[in-house]
Amino acid sequence: MANKIFVYIDHFGGRALPVSWEAVSAAVSLKTSYSSGVTAVVSGYEVGAIAEEAVSYGADEVFVANHEKLKEFRPEVYTSVLVKLMKDSVPEVFLMPNTSRTRELAAMVAVDLETGISPDVVAIDVVDGSIHATRPIYAGKLLTKVVCAIARPQILTLRSRAFKKPEPDTSLSGEIIQADVEVEDPVTEVLGYKESEAGVSLTDAGIIVSGGRGVSNNPSLTPIADITDEKGKEIWRAQQGFQLVRKLAEVLGAAMGASRAAVDAGYIPYAHQVGQTGKVVSPDLYIACGISGAIQHLAGMRTSKMIVAINKDADAPIFQVARFGVVGDLFNILPALTEALKKRLGK
Amino acid sequence: MNIVVCVKQAPDTAATVTVQDGKVSWGDAPLVLNPWDEYAVEQALLTKEEHGGKITAISLGPEDAKEALKTALAMGVDEAILVSDPAFAGADTLVASKVLAAAISKVEAVDLIFFGRSAVDSDSGVLGAQVARRLGWPSLSLVAAVNNLSPEGGTIEVERMIDEGRQIVKGSLPVVVSVVKGINEPRYPSFMGIRKASRAEIPLWTAVDLGLTAVPSPAMTWPEIFAPLKIETKCEFIEGETPVVIAEKLADRLMEEKVI
Ligand SMILES: Cc1cc2nc3c(=O)[nH]c(=O)nc-3n(C[C@H](O)[C@H](O)[C@H](O)COP(=O)(O)OP(=O)(O)OC[C@H]3O[C@@H](n4cnc5c(N)ncnc54)[C@H](O)[C@@H]3O)c2cc1C
Ligand SMILES: Nc1ncnc2c1ncn2[C@@H]1O[C@H](COP(=O)(O)O)[C@@H](O)[C@H]1O
User: Fold this and answer.
1) ipTM of this predicted structure
2) Contact of B41 with B87, CB cutoff 8 Å
3) Which atom of ligand 2 is nearest to the CA of B40?
4) Residue A57 half-sphere exposure toward CB, CA atoms < 13 A
5) Disruptive mutation site among A247, A277, A280 for chain B (greatest number of B CBs within 10 Å)
6) Which CATH architecture has domain A207-345?
7) Which of A22, A136, B125, B134 is paired with A99 by a 20 to 30 Å CA distance?
8) Which CATH architecture has domain A5-178?
């Protein structure tokens, strides 16, 4: 009998994203409620290894759609493959990790199947055969339960780091099925990639060190002589500040974030921005340096498990959400903290 | 070029949002053009400035959503249309995408539709893709730069901001483009623009006007909206004579808490 729980594995460059395995663990947690096994779906080209890996994370069965035309992700072609699969199997639930690809993919699949979508879900419960999903709205100022009571499958994308991260177990077994797919011609052409500006994916990061407008505020730094304009001097100062942020991040194996003020002033690319109009992150540790804690910034990092704030101003709102606070100049504190942690971490 | 830009009205992002009697309230905070949609409007204006044509802004919402359309008009779009009908109340994205697709189809010979990344109230970020799917057009989402647009050749080349970096993609017109922050710097409405907008007639299209005789019922319901659990954080301030003393203490506390 076909499984009622399906889960999609998102991958890039031959590797599954960590949040894909979180989605598999969420799917496994539904097994008793639906008295069903879990079918993982891997779509792409030469993705056999990812299918094997899905088994080790708890999938009872893996559907593999393998085709040259699926080599580059294009939402339209991937949608047609998934829609065919959904129509053949009619599962109750289709879980997806929430990524820059799947949000769009889930949206399109939902249209073709005339079913509902719950994006960016942080918790799930099953009540009377339907998932009651919890998701943040108004940038996390509120939460809502969302239910897709009649249409099937219920499609959900799950927020990174909101569900349990499972450990792989290579002794698990599961059936790998090569799906017989017909793939339509893509309507767009992928010409190439440019390197990531963020370096480490912010949404997956366990630790994030972020800098704000305060990173440019060290009047005692004298910019090199050939920078004459004020804006140039400010950016030069900010780069020295972000250098300190970067060094701390390196010692911690952390990703680098930023406030919008730092991004808009041209200190650092937009890909690093955390907040309402940037990325929403939920690391174990978030260190905010020279960030005041505006409501739109908090919207992006408030759910971090622990927040540390370093700020000159004892009244900065960031301290209201911080577990540890240092009132001081980041240009003094950051190098000292980097050294202190280097010693302790044996680096 | 015939350009459409889809915009939503939303409470100001600085608003304190609460739940009262099961309903969302933002007090007396103003309703504004959804911040993400400012980038979509700006991109429409830049496209028109380069290639000529006409821009129509469309918003689906209650009567008072006209204010967001007025902002778009004040920024410089040519026409604005409000899509509104009591039958659309409680619409989920499945219904909204159907209604918007119908409205866009009523606008003649559209080449290009701009969307924002997401609405700051519902935080769904799916409508652009859903409307594209309904129209059968390609969707280019998370667009951070338009490198090339050729109305004659009917092609567009963009940079998409994906989790791993930037993806460069070429598509063909007509197309749906959803933009992210960083693609441009939205202009402020000009004084003249505001005057023009305040006098503009904004036509209202109902379900009947769109030929939607039976408005589909939404697939999703929202049985409960609530405030997140207030986590009482008491900030422990780390103090000391010198930065080194402070840093050593903080490092010790972080090690004790096992976060690193
Ligand atoms: C629609 C909208 C969307 C927005 N989206 C976002 C978003 O996604 N993300 C975001 O971050 N913001 C966002 N904002 C902007 C937000 O309102 C704030 O303007 C912004 O977060 C401020 O950034 P900041 O804290 O770096 O700068 P500031 O508020 O200027 O704070 C700088 C802080 O640094 C401290 N400081 C200065 N020098 C030092 C030093 N040497 N050592 C230590 N501390 C120092 C100061 O005391 C101050 O608290 C948005 C705003 C709007 C209207
Ligand atoms: N009610 C609406 N009317 C017109 N456009 C909308 C509406 N809601 C959302 N949009 C557009 O769709 C984008 C994504 O919104 P959403 O999927 O609702 O988060 C927004 O940035 C707008 O461009």
Assistant:
1) 0.96
2) no
3) 23
4) 28
5) A277
6) 3-Layer(aba) Sandwich (3.40)
7) B134
8) 3-Layer(aba) Sandwich (3.40)
